[in-house]
Amino acid sequence: MRASSYPFPTRRSLKIFAFDPMLGRVPLHRITIDVTHEQLRPGPMGSRLTILDYDGVRGRYYEPVNLDDPALLLQDGLDPTEADPRFHQQMVYAVAMKVIENFEVALGRRIHFYRRKPLLLLPHAFAGANAYYSSRRQAILFGYFSADAAKPGSNIPGQNVFSCLSQDIIAHEVTHAIVDRLRRFFKWPTNPDMLAFHEGFADIVAIFQHFSFPEILNHAIQETHGDLRRPTPLIELAAQFGQATGKGEALRTALDRPDAAASNNILEPHQRGSILVAAVFDGFFTTFQSRIQDLLRLASGGTGRLPEGYLHPDLVNRLAQEARATAQAVLRMCIRAFDYLPPVDVTFGDYLRALVTADYELNPDDRSGLRRNMVEAFRVRGIYPHGVRSLAEDSLLWERFDAGATCPDYVISELNNRLLSEAASSSRSSTRDQVAEEKLGRREEKTLNYLARELRKKAWESFDKLDLASPHTVRTNLVSMHPVFRIGQDGQLLVETVIQFVQERRRSKSSYGGVAMRGGSTVIAQADGRIRYVISKPLDSTDLRPEKAREGKEREMRFESFLRDFDCTDACQIWRDERYHQERLVRGLTLAMVDRRGAG
């Protein structure tokens, strides 16, 4: 048969529940989204996601959906329903792909999972009111359960509730998986913010993904008269899940009452993560309000107060455009900040500095006031970066590197060429499948290993300038390196290479609970190899400059204090044997355990 002369489609439209089936009973909440088109096997199984629908309770496989079947292609997939497991598979795939796309647009590169193998998602993995990401399995497991008999909320008492049908839960868990790829040491906590950051950031992605749904956004603006602070599904997470478990409300929300003491008093990861979510949403809302002041004045005859009643559809559309543009800017700012985070021991204060620096690099003028509003939102919640002189922008920016070390320009050039080659091939990725993706990864592995050796050689020569202890005294690894291509506010191309070094010092397990004391640096270099930033979390080492050695010693003291606090809050600690005591963090503080305790 002769190959088709028609261009292959680049986008695929799929129907989903915008929030969850409980809200999906209203026709408005059944929507269609588009994702990157690729050839799929039944499952669906693609180059980066594999949906395996094995029911762990009933011990059976459900029939896999074939999204490449012409009948489904013609009607944008199956209609949203709770009754057909094949739609469950479609929903998981569509939402997960949308999350991956959001990261790729913001980071300026393609997201791959471990060894370029697809992330595994199991829509009906177990019975239980939970879903969680397993780093060991490289999989996301979704549970299902019966709604509370006494307090089912808007559900029928005892009805089946599927976590895989919640857009929020899917987005949250896929974000966990991507964060684990971007910063794999963030899942091992060394301070109270680390797991809270994982949880809070996953909620941020889920909430701001709501703003990409035009129908939902327009409806929310009409319903709230433009006041997006009013409680609506737009700024709440997993309403059906929260009500079905007897909570009586959504699982979490982006709203709070700012409390400067909260960051010192709240330690549970989900609750502490909610502080970060509320700060980011506060920064978004203040920026959105400033962007629509002219529209409000025009629509209200200069008073700035909209009249009661139904808003004109044209005004709603314009307000929605501004809300969507602001939400996209905030989401990309939040994701882009990952390239400016240290590789270990992250705090909320570090994240604020990364937000400010990442946005400054692309938008130095801050015409919308987004950075200023973010800083204020963090301040009123008592979030202050360590070691800064003030909350002025120039103080929050990471310090420019001026120690004179460089990365080999031929390594940077080769990495850039590799990314450009991948970008060109990704434009044809609709015809590429998992096998092709893995073959490409194997071909590139030898080149990457060579480049990594060259970078390590150069780094070992200048370890002190990169805030690293001598590689002869501690275990030192180059854990990632990737080029980034972005377009700045002035329309110019910004090319950088981001490299992560992690160092590890092990003590006895009885001292550190089975978790190593780690330090490291994120190195950001220009296209010519000149280093622009070294964002470090140093170890306590005499090899370093005095101020960095002092910082390393302070980090170690804070880490030991954190371990003591964890022991004091573990109610089962007195009943455990010595072996458990030696491995308390390894066993107790993992993403899966946190999700099981906090329901997502």
Report on the architecture of this protein.
With 600 residues, this protein is an alpha+beta fold. It has 2 domains: 386 residues, no CATH class; 161 residues, no CATH class. Strands 3, 6, 7, 8 and 9 form a 5-stranded mixed β-sheet that branches. A 4-stranded antiparallel β-sheet has the order 12-13-14-15. A two-stranded antiparallel ribbon has the order 1-2. A hairpin with a 4-residue loop joins strand 14 and strand 15. Helix 12 packs antiparallel against helix 13. The longest helix has 28 residues. The protein starts with 10 loop residues before the first strand and ends with a helix. The relative contact order is 0.10.
